[in-house]
Amino acid sequence: MKRIKITPLFFSLILLTACSSGRVMLANPRTGATLECGASGWGLFAPAASGMVDDCVRRYEPDGYVPVDRLTPQERADLERRGVVLR
Fold first, then answer.
1. Which residues pair with 27 in a beta bridge?
2. Residue 2, phi then psi, degrees to nearest 5
3. What pTM was computed for the model?
4. What H or E segment, with its residue span, contains residue 78?
5. How many helices (H) and strands (E) does the chain have?
6. What are the residue boundaries of the structural domains of the chain, listed by start?
7. pLDDT tens digits for range 24-47
8. Could you read off the pLDDT of 56-83 as tens digits, one per residue?
9. Distance between CA atoms of 83 and 8, rounded to whole angstroms?
């Protein structure tokens, strides 16, 4: 009777069934504008979803957008005073 190696089979299944989803909220402290970068993927496309979110963030940073988790306390307070909802 032939023995099947479990390790390659296990990693193949993980690769095909893996999923990824990411979302990053961006805010422009100067204008108060917000936007969200997000993507999801499964199987072989799971790593691409993360790359798409990173590309989106890099695309908007030159325009003054900052991920909400990197806002300074002063910037956050100013945006909240102006009624900008930060999640």
1. 34, 66
2. -80, 145
3. 0.71
4. helix 73-81
5. 3, 3
6. 14-77
7. 999 999 999 999 999 887 776 777
8. 999 999 999 999 999 999 999 999 999 9
9. 53
